[in-house]
């Protein structure tokens, strides 16, 4: 199985929608993903994620299944911190929280990193919620997550290509959970741009045990092909 994780296009956050650039990005990523076919399409319940998934749905003639647990509002509730200036920021964007995420003391706590007194109880609850939802989602796809051994048990060999359209903030918790990489390591080292495509491959092994491999992260080649700006989150030309 191949899982494509796609961030929504250039957004208008209020009201929840896409800019004209975001709509063109959505069309570009749809063309790319349709090249080899997509069997199932999932999206967060946010309008910007659904709008990004819609061109692909129209091309491959597959419905969009909306997943509320992928909505970034839930991740925002769980993975944010109030900074000294009174603003609320993502853990991976707040200057003090970023230092804490990268600290050896935090990393030495392993899977229970959120037990550090710096982090609020909601963070630990958020990690547990995401892990449960991830495991339920993959169970529905035919994979039982063995977190003790960082592997998955396959019910049967699977050649499907699955697309999930969601968000940046949610991706930190989702991808770290899927790949069994502690959130502090993932969130402090990786980011994802508008319609960036992360490709996760689940090899079909004869022993029916598999471990996902990230083949690409936040790939934006579709933007280059369509002559759209390859400007990471509208900040850095790459």
Helix content: 25-40%
CATH class: Alpha Beta
Whole-number mean pLDDT: 96
CATH topology call: Rossmann fold
Q: What is the assigned CATH homologous superfamily?
A: Phosphoglycerate mutase-like
Radius of gyration: 18 Å
Distance between the termini: 30 Å
Helical stretch tally: 9
CATH architecture assignment: 3-Layer(aba) Sandwich
Strand order of the largest sheet: 5-4-10-1-11-13
The class by helix and strand makeup works out as: alpha+beta
Order of helices and strands: EEEHEHEHEEHHHEEEHHEEEHEE
Approximately what portion of the residues adopt beta-strand conformation? 15-25%
List low-confidence stretches. Answer: none
Task: Characterise this structure.
Helix content is 38%, strand content 24%. It has 238 residues and is of the alpha+beta class. It has a single domain, classed as Phosphoglycerate mutase-like (Rossmann fold, 3-Layer(aba) Sandwich). The strands form five sheets. It has a six-stranded mixed β-sheet, sandwiched between helices. A three-stranded antiparallel β-sheet has the order 8-9-12. It has a two-stranded antiparallel ribbon with strand order 2-3. A hairpin with a 4-residue loop joins strand 2 (11-12) and strand 3. It is globular and about 50 Å long. The model has no long low-confidence stretch (mean pLDDT 96).
């Amino acid at each position: 199985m191949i899982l494509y994780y796609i961030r929504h296009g250039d957004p208008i956050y209020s009201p929840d929608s896409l800019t004209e650039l975001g709509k063109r990005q959505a069309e570009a990523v749809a063309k790319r993903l349709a090249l080899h076919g997509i069997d199932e399409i999932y999206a967060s319940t946010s309008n910007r994620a659904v709008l990004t998934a819609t061109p692909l749905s129209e091309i491959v003639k597959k419905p969009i299944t909306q997943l509320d647990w992928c909505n970034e509002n839930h991740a925002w509730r769980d993975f944010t911190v109030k900074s000294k200036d009174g603003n609320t920021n993502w853990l991976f964007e707040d200057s003090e929280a970023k230092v804490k995420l990268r600290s050896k003391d935090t990393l030495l706590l392993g899977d229970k990193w959120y037990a550090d007194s710096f982090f609020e109880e909601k963070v630990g609850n958020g990690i547990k919620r995401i892990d449960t939802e991830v495991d339920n989602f993959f169970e529905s796809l035919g994979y039982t997550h063995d977190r003790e051994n960082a592997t998955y048990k396959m019910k049967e060999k699977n050649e499907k290509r699955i697309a999930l359209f969601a968000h940046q903030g949610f991706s930190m918790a989702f991808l770290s959970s899927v790949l069994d990489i502690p959130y502090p390591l993932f969130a402090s080292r990786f980011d994802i741009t508008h319609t960036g495509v992360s490709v996760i491959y689940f090899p079909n092994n004869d022993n029916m045990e598999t471990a996902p491999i990230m083949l690409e992260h936040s790939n934006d080649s579709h933007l280059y092909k369509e002559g759209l700006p390859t400007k990471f989150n509208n900040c850095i030309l790459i």
